[in-house]
Amino acid sequence: MAEKVEGMKVNFKNGQIDKPSRARQGSEWRKWDFHVHTPFSYLNNQFGDNFDEYVQTLFKKAIEKEISVIGITDYFCIEGYKKIKNEYLDDKAKLGQLFSEDEIAKIKEITLLPNIEFRLDRSVKIDKKNKPSTESKINFHVIFSDTVAIEDIEENFLHRLEIITENWPQSETQYRSLTRRNMEILGEKLKREQLSFQRKSYIYVGMNCTEVNDEKIVSVLKSNRSTFEGKYILCLPSDENLSDVSWSDQGHNFRKILIQRSDVLFNSNQGSIDWGLGKKHPTQQAFIDEFKTLKPCIWGSDAHDPKTLFEPAEQRYTWIKADTTFEGLKQIIYEPEERVRIQKNNPSFADDKPYFSELVIKKEVSIYKNTEDQVCFREVSLPLNKNLVAIIGGRGTGKSMIVDYWAGIFKNISRETQRTEDSERAKDSEYTKTSDFNLKYAKNNIPSPSEETYDGGNDNNLDYIYIPQRRLKEVTEKRNVGDEVKKLLKIEELSFSPEVDKEIQATLNAVIEIRKWFDEENDRGEKPNDRDFVASLKKQNEDYIRSITTEANKEKLETYTANISQIKEIESRITRFADLINKIKKTQEELNKEINAINAQFTEEEGYKKVPEIDFKDQIEALAENSKSAYLLKEEKDNRNNAIKSDFEKDGFTGDLTSLLRNAETYQAQIKWAETQLELISQKEIALEKALNDRAALGVKIKQEYERQKENIDEAWSGILSIHEGKNKELIEKILLKDAKIKVTGEIVFDEQAFFTEFYRIFDRRSVKNIDILKGIYPIHNFEEWIQFVSVREFKEERVEDHQSFFFGMSERSKYLKTIPKITYDGKPLEKLSVGQRGTVYLRLKLATDAFSKPIVFDQPEDDLDNEFIMNELVSIFKQLKKCRQIIIVTHNANLVVNADAEQVIVANNVDERLSYTSGALENSDIIESVCKVLEGGKAAFERRKDKYSSLTNQSLVLPKFTVDASG
Q: Which top-level group of life is the source organism from (predicted)?
């Protein structure tokens, strides 16, 4: 079956609403023209009398110009609207004669609204600043919903209005009902009485001289509440710039009352647009107090001929972000600045941003791998709005499930392990991976964007923000919330300079290695690198030599020892000479043998020259001479040593001279080693001195590094604004940061308790009984005192010296000393805030640091945020932020849906564990009903939205008629 909802055909299939794709996508910017006349506008008809041609021209050009809604306008009547509806749109055969099937399909997507243009019975004097005053009659429009029956408009409204036809002195005025016939009668009478009217028709003259009273218009509409309430708007045309009009003349009050009475203004001037939004008054509330509501402006082509049809002056088209219904039109009253624009181009493409464009589930999909869990998604093709999408539903309907499953198809988006209340079984179940679950993603915001389809059966990666349920609470309860803030500020890699860190490690290693070298022991437990040990060893061997030789024999013994060494070297040379002579002789013999063989084979008669033999005589003789010289030198050394030995024997030495010489060599070698080692020790001592000085200087460098990190945090915070320009910068400053009183500063934190807890572990508990004693020994209470302590050249206590990494090593030092972003909110540190306030601060920071472009999917923000923040600020933030990024929220908070003016509402349903999703615009009656049923305070939220820009708070909101389940 089919049901009509606000002029839109809605087909029901298997209990699910089957709406046109664009309707399911929610509120979108579309082109509306409120002021299009018909041939029944007798006062200025340039269309001619052929109504078929008029209708053809009307719709063909509407299709060409992509007009979605037309205000069919006539003076004092709805004859043109009635004829188009009854004789064309409701007559398939007639449409078939005039249009193709494709054109008919497009015509059915166009909404027609009856617009009646009245001339009021009073005029107003217009005094423009610095310009001559003018006086003119005032026109007044009433635009009706297309759901109001034509007969009701005529019989219960138009025919109950009155026109003056006659008057006599001291008598009652004669009135007639506002009908076509009565206007013709008036015209006929006036033609008889006034010659200048003779060339005009009765209807022209009567209509031209007809005037109605604005109070009567309103009173008739109000007296028929059951028929008209909530189904009309009052429009006041204003050709002048209202911001430039003097309000100090006699017509002040009448002009003000007319504007107070009007819902909207017919004006395309930017000054008037701003004026109607209260921007020219001291405050917006001051305007509301004076004029009762804000006054959005609409416009149209005011077409009286085919040429101007849908061609407003200067291409000032009216764009409205709403369903193409009368209820959609009313949204401009509730959101007068956000829902309507008068400009050439579609506002939808003002900000470039990627967005999820469609969710497609090709067939029924089981959600869990566990076959015992039979929960599944039903088949759906759900177009997604690029602005604010709100997913609502009762408990267990799958409102959170869909976005969590959605996140699960992207590897880089971390899924929350603690799932939502929609399915507690998810804690122990894994999601399926299937190609039947697809997400389409538009990479840019243009009429035909480049799109990517992400297949749920693949491993995908996409950069968007997903904030699962309870995520904000978990993040802000962690001790490492500072690390989270660093990520937001894009300084998560904030660390010591690699060069400085390398220098620290090199300096510490140098001290350790040099000290380790000094402390090395040999197998006998001796320290060969200790200066005292080596000096003692040198002295000991020198004493040994002195004890076995007199001063007189010392020189001989040293000569003897030196000769022994030299004789060994000479013997080695002699051996080398002999070996080389033999090698040369052998080589000479082998080469000459080869030469003789060649000479024997190739004769001179054949032209070959005889090859002479090789002779190494000179080389052999030179080597023989060298060998002889070496023998002579060896003989000389032997003779000298024999003489020395003889001298020792003559001196009465009866011991073993060889043993004496062997010991002397050992002693001398030890002395020589000791001298070399002492030189090395001196070098190491110099190196240690430098390393200790370098280590003492590390304190200053470490301080500089911490201060650099602090400055980086400060710069990152102040840089949030500098990276944006224009309206983006204004959004960051006013909505996310400035008004929120959030401040982030770098702070160097020295945790005294953590420091002494770790420091205490170094000490022998027998000498230092407790931490308090340790604190008394080392008065280190802050960062500056710590820097002074580590800047000494050498620690007095050996145990402290042995644990230098505790002070200088990054991993150990970070336990008690670090640079953190300090967050304050209205002067209070983060730890002093409530959980909701902390979530609020974190969300503000996240939105401020990553505010633009990529989509954000946020599951039930109200669970982790401060209620006052949601009511007073988050609604406004979402309204501004959705212009530059797609926001998708799962929520049970009516204010986030209604007062944040969600462009699309998706309603989740669960029937026998089969999850389904329907969607539409906030102004759609089905969606309104769902919001009021499912969300606590839904109707109150609509009331607040209606009264937000109005001083008429005593008026009740007219909602579509339905029954609200109080238990819902």
A: Bacteria
